[in-house]
Amino acid sequence: MSKFSHKNENSDFISHLPEPIMHYILSLFNNKECARTCVLSKTWKNVYYSKPNMLFHEEDFIPSNSFINSLEGRNLFLNYVDQSLNRAIEMKSNHLERFELHLTLCDPDGIPQSNVVNQLLRKVFGLGVKTMSLILDFLDNPSHLVLESKTLIEVHLDCFSFIKACKTINFPHLRVLSLFHIDLPNKALEMLISGCPCVEVLRLSHCSTSQNLQLLGLTKLVEITVSFCRDVETVEIRSLFCQNIYVIDDCNESATITLLGCETMSNLHLNVWLSNEFSEFKWLVELKLMNLVIKGRISSQSIKRLVIRHCTAETEMVQICCQNLLSLEYEANDIPFHFDGLCDLRDFTYGFSLLQNGRYDQINSLEKLFGSTFNVMKNLKMVILLGPLKVNTLILNLFLTFDFYRCINIYAFSNNILFVKLINIFIISGSNYFGGVD
Amino acid sequence: MAEKASESSNSISLNTVDGKIFKVSPTIANQMQTIQSLIKAYDSSRVISLPHVNAFHLSKIIEYLEGKSATTVSAVKEFEAQFMKDLSLKQLKGLLIAVGYLKVNELLELMPKTVAKLIENKSVEFLRKFFGIVNDFTPSEEAKIREEIAWAFDGVDED
After folding, report:
1. Is B93 within 8 Å of A3 when comparing Cβ atoms?
2. How many folded domains does chain B comprise?
3. Which controlled-vocabulary keywords does the entry list (chain B) (predicted)?
């Protein structure tokens, strides 16, 4: 039996723990549970209101089956947020690590008034907030919000009219900026960039922007993600540090994107075709192409790692010319590609699913993929990712046809389980094919 | 001096507030961040005194760290559960403070989780009784707070 139930040890142990430990304990609870602890005693109330994380989510506050008029409910909620901030200010706790305000119960009557939000944010900034997440449905007053904070490092915004509702933005130390569902015409974008000059990581998702996304003032930008921003056709970046560029779009096959001034980029992930030549990017090391139609040759001396997942080709056979490739990951049943001069390849991961008739036609495709260069790839480590397997003998047939290279390590996985590990078996006779069965 | 250093080069001596000396291996000592920084700051042959930690708590911490490193990955959960179960409420508090002072990261994660589990889904009355928390609000003060956070009591059965 646990000793926890011994009654004689009931001298209040928990209220006198160091505050950081109390805060950590509270952080393990959901918002409701957490708030209930402040009824326990004055100590607990103080601990609750001095928490470094203040997370206000409307869906916790207003039960979904409530009959409260939603406008009334929202006002009560915003009032509570305000009171909590006042308490934190009274206690002079100026170590607010994280502030979240999520007004997610969308209702046209429940419009958050810009001035209410403005007042709340002023208090939040006064508390020295470091990271902030705001999800608001609508702000009515354009050019109204005054946003100034020297402590903010990370901001997540989700509100269509947010930037238009801003009068001033001044976050001189902001490093991570995520924007969701935001209306970002050029003027708004310029204001945002000049107010956040030190942004290193920028994420734009589902934003409505102009066709030419110009990110000129962000000289410290290291990483940019543009996802599901339908209007974007060109992205222009003038940053000497920009290394990672990720462009994700819904599968609009005709769309292409152009990158301007991204000379220092080393990692590029795309699921929309790029109109630039890959050889323009002298420092490009990793290229990931996912779910897109490949519309031209891929040629680059610098690429070391190439990932192609579920891509198709516009022409019957696409030439891929990356002589210095070390690692290749290919996933799809068809291989409309031909690789030139892959002498240095060390790792090759190949994923495909079993064809309907139970044959692995992919083996022939593999020969097509590499052509004669397979013979010179001495130290290749090959991983085969198979779709769900039903019949074990199928894999035997698969490997029987592998007779075109030697000294290669092969691992075959199905459903993430190591299925067979075959090492140097192709020079041994047939009975030993499964010498390394795991 | 040189002799002494070579003698103790493999173990670090820790002196608790009640005067007991523990010798621990560097791998164990380095898992206590406070001690790690003290080792860096001082000559490692010196006895490090810990004015805020008593022998019982230090022995428990060492027991946990040594026990865990000797346990296989799959059995760690069981080991941790047993370790926590063997502690009384009073011991839990003292140990948590010692762990906080010595900055033993793994225990700093594990122990508050145990405490959180004790609090989770419990009524206010139960928690006051269980932990011996003195309600220092007047009835009207308490009613006011309950009203303020009425949303947090939504769907909760008070006993």
Report:
1. no
2. 2
3. Kinase, Transferase, Ubl conjugation pathway
Contact: B124, A40; criterion CB under 8 Å: yes
Name the residue of chain A whose CA is nearest to B155's CA: A63
Query: What local confidence, expressed as pLDDT, does residue B112 receive?
Result: 87
Banded pLDDT at A8 (limits 50, 70, 90): very low
CA–CA gap between residue B26 and residue B39 (Å, rounded): 10
Distance CA A57, CA A103 (A): 7
Q: How far is B55 from chain A (nearest CA, A)?
A: 20
Higher pLDDT, A372 or A143: A143
Would the CB atoms of B152 and A35 count as touching at under 8 Å?
Answer: yes
User: B110 CB near a chain A CB, below 8 Å?
Assistant: no
Residue-number span of the structural domain to which A23 is assigned: 14-51
For A395, counting Cβ atoms within 10 Å of its Cβ (0-12 exposed, 13-18 middle, 19+ buried), the class is: buried
List the 28-47 stretch of A: residues with Cβ below 8 A of B.
28-29, 31-42, 44-45
Look at residue A255 and tell me whether its pLDDT is greater than 50.
Answer: yes
The predicted model scores a pTM of: 0.78
Question: B69 to chain A nearest CA, in Å?
Answer: 25
Residue A343 C-beta-side C-alpha neighbours within 13 Å:
3
Please state the domain count of chain A. 2
Would you tell me how many other CB atoms lie within 10 Å of the CB of residue A163?
25
Closest chain B residue to the Cα of A1, Cα to Cα:
B85
Task: Specify the pairing of strand B21-24 against strand B12-16.
Answer: antiparallel
Q: Are residues B67 and B18 in the same domain?
A: yes
Nearest-angstrom CA–CA distance, A48 and A41: 11
B129 interfaces chain A, CB cutoff of 8 Å? yes
- B101 and B33 in one domain? yes
If phi over 0 gives left and psi between -120 and 50 gives alpha, with beta otherwise, what is residue A97? alpha
Closest approach of A44 to chain B, Cα-based (Å): 10
Length of chain B, in residues: 159
Question: Residue B77 sits in which domain range?
Answer: 2-121
Taking residues A367-385, report their average pLDDT.
Answer: 64
pLDDT band at A363 (very low <50, low <70, confident <90, very high): low
Over residues A205-233, mean pLDDT: 88
CB A360 within 8 A of CB A340: no
Instruction: Judge whether A265 and A282 are in contact, CB under 8 Å.
Output: no
Contacts of A45 in chain B (CB under 8 A): 145
- Contact of B126 with chain A, judged by CB distance below 8 Å, is answered with no
- Identify whether residues B137 and B103 lie together within a single domain: no
Q: Is A101 domain-assigned?
A: no
